[in-house]
Amino acid sequence: MNQQLPRDDELIPRLLAHDEHAYAQLVSAYHGLMVHLARAIVGPAIADEVAQEAWLSVIRALPRFERRSSLKTWILRIVSNTAKTRLRHESRTVNLQDALGDQTRIDPGQFNASGRWASPPVAWHADTPDDLLASRELRACIDASLDALPPMQRAALTLRDMQGLDMESLCKVLEVSESNGRVLLHRARHRVQAAIEAFYQR
Amino acid sequence: MKMMLPSCREITERASDYLDQNLSPWQRAAFRMHLLMCIYCRRHVRHLDLTVATLGRIAAEDETPQNDDIQQIVELLKRQQNESAGQKGEDGG
Ligand SMILES: [Zn+2]
Among A13, A90, A105, B14, which residue carries the largest CB count within 10 Å? Predict the structure, then answer.
């Protein structure tokens, strides 16, 4: 199932012609990513459902796809919007301002009045991701920090650092400006880093 | 002309953009100058870099979809397509 996905301009006509093999290739290439993004925004319980709903929208809307972005970016934007709509229906919010205004920065007590470190970072005794992930306890801390992120921050982190999207695609998918996209990413990364730091400070 | 170097606090605020190569050449030069002189900020930036790499590793171990899931979605899409084709057929007939 894991052959390389054809280029958009080869794949799209085949999808529009309802080529079942093309469907399978597309689903195989993007379904995992879609579930991952959906989970970042709505949580694990209904992520699969949101991804399915998004797939139906993708196939319905495909004849109107204007190719101003890659197919992948366009599909992920549909997932993001489906997930946000779902949250609103459940009267939960995906408030961008909440995620941007989140003041849980690095603890201001870490710096003195002139902006120098007052409580400097401790050594982590880890040089690689494998070193860090070798500790189950630390892994649990990282997972907890991810769970605690505001949805839009978690979505930004998922797309950029976990799924390797470039910044421009990230902003298109989440429908945020480039500077807001960067702020979301910055905050999210720092929260995870702070969780690891707290683990080593104990 | 004396270049104003960023403080440690400012380094932490720009570290994410530094790693993503989103700083202007001037900001980048000042950032690196600070790192040369400050062991703690070097450590902070290294840790952020490691954090980002670790997130990538976590994603890689995350689920790739099962063939069953893929087949289920493909069936769903085919069904939707047949339904809409069926509707068109009825309209025509
Ligand atoms: Zn410093």
Answer: B14
Q: Which two tokens stand for residue A55?
A: 């797939």
Q: What is the pLDDT of residues B44-62, one digit of tens each?
A: 999 999 999 999 999 877 6
ipTM of the complex: 0.89
Phi/psi of residue A118, nearest 5 degrees: -95, -45
Give the contacts of A13 (CB within 8 A, at least 6 positions apart): none
| Residues 6 or more apart in contact with residue A171 via CB below 8 angstroms | A177, A178, A180, A181
Please give the CATH architecture assigned to the domain spanning A101-200.
Answer: Orthogonal Bundle (1.10)
- A-proximal residues of B, 21-50, CB under 8 Å: 22, 40-41, 43-44, 47-48, 50
- Which residues does residue A111 pair with via DSSP β-bridges, in sequence order? A117
Task: Note whether A176 and A96 are within 8 A (CB).
Answer: yes
Give the up-direction half-sphere exposure of residue B38: CA atoms within 13 A in the CB hemisphere. Answer: 26
Give me the CATH topology for the region A2-90. Answer: Rna Polymerase Sigma Factor; Chain: A (1.10.1740)
